[in-house]
């Protein structure tokens, strides 16, 4: 039996700059301590992984291979702020999609008219 401690898998520093910016925005110094940023990033990464596992568990329960937004909504059903944010982002995404479609349609028509002249 080995006496080496069990090491966690090293995750890439995906959110380091974002965590630094958030710390500064919430009143910390402009260059926060590396250990503080690393701890917060680990907490954030663990939370995201846990949410993804929970959503995947919901998808598996309904016998689907793919995770849908509804699975995340179900996983966050007791956290009204996060659930509201998901619904707000979905609504904004739909508005942006419709605006792009309208813009593309109107742009295509105006280009077609100028090409006929």
From TrEMBL:
CDD domains: HFD_TAF13 (cd07978). It is found in: Nucleus. Keywords: Nucleus, Transcription, Transcription regulation. It holds the Pfam family TFIID-18kDa. Its main location: nucleus. Transmembrane segments: none annotated. Belongs to the TAF13 family. This is Transcription initiation factor TFIID subunit 13. It comes from Myxozyma melibiosi.
